Amino acid sequence: MMKWLCNIFFSCLQQCKNFFLFHLCCMQFFSSNKGLQEIFFEIIPPPPPSRVKWSAPNQASCQLPSFYGVTIVLDNVYVMRVLHNDRLLIMAGDSVAEAQWNAFCSNVVGEWSGLWTFWDPHTGKVRRLFNCVRSFKALNEEKTLIKHQNISDDPAMSPEHKGPWEIRREDTDENGFCHPAYPQRRAVFLPNGGGVWSTGDINGIDKLGFELFLCQGEHRCSVIVSYDESKQLRLFGTIREKQRTAQTEVWSPSTALRESFRHSDINEDFVGVINTLDKNLHLSSIPGSKWDKSYWLRTEEMDDMENVLFKFLPDTICLSCPAELCTNSFSLRACVLFPNGGEKELQELTVTFVDGQLQSVRQGRYHPGC
């Protein structure tokens, strides 16, 4: 019954037909179910009239602009579909684990060629620099078994960091994507492939490392931070990658750190949508959000900023992180300005831990706007 409703609803959204009739029928069904946790959907252009709103129990109504798909979480199961650039990311009936696996397969599987750069946080000097191809190859048509191998020109990369490994669908669970090399860690993906790889519970762990993903189609970058046993920042770095089949190059070979954002890069307002995965990996979105430029320009007084480092990496990649993990409650932030065929897309990722537990992964995707 649910999948039948989903398919009809999705068809109505695509064709912009019978939307209001279906809205009434669908909401009557959902409003009677106490397991409903969140509803959000975005309509493929042309959008409905600006006054149209979608309401749900326990959630304020939200005005509908035109975005990309549908997400409804009911009893921890995604019961609608999400599309992005015509690629299916979440199928009707997906569990949280399935949504995580689908995001991985849709955005990560392939061959990624990139430059890995790591800096000393105290001196700013490059500590390691090498090229590497991260290969993720599906071993069956269903994409339930993925082979991962790192092919690098770095003589210091040990065999245990090269693989190959076989990643199995059944190892990904409600805590996120699991890699066999580090079963205690999880990757958490948003629908476009952005997210974080870390330990969901950092309590009792001596050395901590985090990889923040920012993705745009055939290009992506990772921002990496690592802390030693004393919880001091040990190093930070970036992986700037593209699909080996990509025809365009957006990354430079530069390793020079910068003092700040170039004002010429961000001399306009950026507006977009914020997507957030909560601690249960449930997705919600806030359209019409404005990028917080003042945080990165540090033009306003901010509390508790004496322990926060701002690092401005090559290619308009930025990092904000604690110099020392004084408590187990903190945030890591990364930002990158993607040149998208002449149209800028600015992405920001914020990963928050509270009392040692992963609390949320928030992704902002912004474009120049008024």
What's the structural blueprint in terms of helices and strands?
Elements: H1 2-15, H2 19-31, E1 36-41, E2 53-56, E3 59-63, E4 70-74, E5 77-78, E6 82-84, E7 87-90, E8 94-95, H3 96-107, E9 110-119, E10 126-138, E11 145-152, E12 165-168, E13 186-189, E14 195-198, E15 208-216, E16 219-227, E17 233-243, E18 270-278, E19 283-290, H4 293-297, E20 308-313, E21 317-322, E22 330-340, E23 343-354, E24 357-368
Antiparallel strand pairs: 1-4, 2-3, 4-5, 5-8, 6-7, 9-10, 9-17, 10-11, 11-12, 13-14, 14-15, 15-16, 16-17, 18-19, 18-24, 20-21, 21-22, 22-23, 23-24
Helix pairs in contact: 1-2
Task: Describe it.
The protein is mainly beta and 370 residues long. It has 2 domains: 2-92, no CATH class; 105-368, Calycin beta-barrel core domain (Lipocalin, Beta Barrel), CATH 2.40.128.20. 12% of the residues lie in helices and 45% in strands. It has helices at residues 2-15, 19-31, 96-107, 293-297, and strands spanning 36-41, 53-56, 59-63, 70-74, 77-78, 82-84, 87-90, 94-95, 110-119, 126-138, 145-152, 165-168, 186-189, 195-198, 208-216, 219-227, 233-243, 270-278, 283-290, 308-313, 317-322, 330-340, 343-354, 357-368. Helix 1 runs antiparallel to helix 2. The termini are far apart. Residues 13-93 have low confidence and may be disordered.
Structural class: mainly beta
Tell me the name of the CATH class of the largest domain.
Answer: Mainly Beta
> C-alpha Rg, in Å?
21 Å
Write down the secondary-structure element order.
HHEEEEEEEEHEEEEEEEEEEEHEEEEE
- CATH architecture name of the largest domain: Beta Barrel
What name is given to the CATH topology of the largest domain? Answer: Lipocalin
The number of strands is 24
Portion of residues in beta strands equals over 45%
Shape: globular
Helical fraction: 10-25%
| Termini gap | 43 Å
Name the CATH superfamily assignment of the largest domain.
Calycin beta-barrel core domain
How does the major sheet shape up?
9 strands, antiparallel
User: Uncertain segments of ≥5 residues (pLDDT<50)?
Assistant: 13-93
**How many domains make up the coordinates?**
2
Total helices: the number is 4
Spatial strand sequence of the major β-sheet: 12-11-10-9-17-16-15-14-13
Mean pLDDT: 78
